[in-house]
Write a structure and sequence with these properties.
With 446 residues, the protein is α+β, with helices and mostly antiparallel strands. The protein contains 17 helices and 13 strands. It has a domain at 266-369: Chitinase A, domain 3 (Roll), CATH 3.10.50.40. 47% of the residues lie in helices and 14% in strands. It is flat and about 90 Å long.
């Protein structure tokens, strides 16, 4: 039984809340059938997305939200931000793109995936790919290499499909534009008489036979979902974990074992002046913008205030802030821009460089060296993580004991009488599509 409970450990509402449910009543609507697989959270064009896949995606989104709040997500924030619906939309979009890729015969090979991984800065040391760094980063994020590589392959396949689909788009002809304009803007003057069926209702007689025949043709519209009403016991991580004291030695050991996850990469603060000239623009524009950039570069090199030059001459969105790009990590900008910035010294002004956006002049303001966050800065987060791990074991044991007690007592109600401290939770009637708020974020429970 304990192992069975462990297999259900991925629930978010009770978070391995072990639940003992007493089914009070099931109400079936007229002719209702449960359609689809019990294992599928979503079905997209026949492709099933399992509850486990949804749960992993939801947990990942929730963890990103948790990180933004330092590990303590305010109550109700996930619901107000619609995290669940965002995850559903993303899973559907990814599935559709993947199906589209299959229809188009698109394939992402293992070699391509390996190339992508080797180019990711997170897995590099001393300017090159490091297998040790790769394994360490995945381990700190609790990811298995095969699952990460499979996910990366799916992501790249989706991106490729989206790019291929967008290439089908064509510019409308003058005739098509005129036709659309006329359909939207054409106006007519119309005289009409409105005849409402309601005006003849007193001339219509409905007997039971007519009503019964009509109902037979439309009764599908009156089907309702099955409804459940539940009683259950819940043993949450929160209720158990907060009572657990974590030893300082364990905190230190966890910190040292996960040191890579507390590293903050070097950041650089730069300004730039942009003269726009995109790849498809005429060569004459490129020549003109390159010359303009060279002239402004001379002004900057002669001591003119760089921020004022950016405000006056830049054609980028940062011109209103003097070309300020703020701090950013390596890999955040387009390659040539990124390489230039991370080869400069504070106060240095670059030569004119060309990117797909146009011609840039860059000023490096300052550098924030790479650091590793101190233990005292992440201590609270580590304590929460260790409390949760210990709470899992305790919750399993307590829940298993309660289950055996319920079996022995013969019912949940009898168990509650013998154990006054046991709090029985109860729901009203609800459907699968509209569960109570307390379990709405937990597909595994539903």
């Amino acid at each position: 039984m304990l192992q069975l409970l462990r297999n259900k450990a991925q629930s978010t509402f009770i978070q391995i809340i072990v639940v003992i449910i007493a089914l009070v009543f099931i109400f079936w609507g007229v002719g209702t059938n449960m359609m689809g697989s019990r294992e599928a959270a979503l079905v997209v064009n026949g492709e099933e997305i399992s509850f486990q896949q949804f749960q992993r995606a939801y947990d990942s989104a929730y963890q990103r939200l948790s990180d933004q709040f330092g590990g303590n997500v305010p109550k109700g924030i996930a619901e107000s931000l619609g995290i669940k619906q965002q995850v559903i939309n993303q899973l559907i979009q990814t599935s559709l793109l993947r199906q589209g890729a299959k229809e188009m015969g698109l394939v992402i090979s293992s070699e391509e995936v390996q190339t992508i991984i080797k180019e990711m800065v997170q897995f590099q040391e001393n300017g090159g790919f490091s297998i040790e760094q790769y394994k360490a980063v995945l381990a700190s994020n609790r990811l298995a290499p095969n699952k990460f590589e499979s996910s990366l392959q799916y992501d790249r396949l989706s991106e490729t499909a989206a790019r291929e689909i967008s290439s089908f788009v064509t510019v409308a002809t003058d005739y098509e534009i005129e036709d659309i304009f006329n359909r939207v803007n054409r106006k007519i003057s119309l005289n009409y008489v409105k005849i409402s069926p309601a005006g003849f209702s007193d001339q219509v007689e409905i007997d039971d036979t007519i009503l019964s025949d009509w109902f037979e043709t439309v009764k599908e519209q009156y089907k309702t979902e099955p409804q459940l009403k539940l009683k259950y016991l819940a043993f949450t991580y929160d209720s158990v974990g907060k009572k657990i004291e974590v030893d300082n030695t364990k905190i230190e050991e966890y910190y040292q074992a996960n040191l890579n996850s507390y590293k903050v990469a070097e950041q650089r603060h730069a300004r730039h002046i942009l003269f726009k000239a995109e790849e498809n623009d005429p060569e004459t524009l490129h020549t003109e913008q390159s010359e303009n950039a060279s002239e402004v570069l001379k002004l900057a090199q002669d001591g003119a205030d760089f921020a004022e030059l950016a405000t006056e001459y830049s054609e980028g969105p940062s011109k209103t802030s003097g070309g300020d790009l703020g701090f950013f990590e390596q890999g955040s900008m387009v390659p040539i821009f990124d390489t230039t910035v991370f080869a400069m010294k504070p106060g240095e002004i670059s030569e004119v460089i060309k990117t797909r956006f146009g011609y840039h002049i860059i000023l490096l303001e300052e550098i924030k060296p790479a650091i590793t966050r101190e233990l005292q800065d992440v201590r609270e987060s580590i304590v929460g993580t260790l409390q949760r791990k210990e709470a899992e074991n305790i919750a399993f044991q307590v829940a298993n004991s309660a289950y055996e007690g319920i079996i022995g007592a013969g019912s949940l109600d009898n168990y509650a009488k013998d154990n006054p401290k046991a709090e029985i939770l109860e729901t009203d009637f609800f459907t699968r599509s509209k569960p109570p708020e307390t379990i709405a974020g937990d597909p595994e429970f539903i």
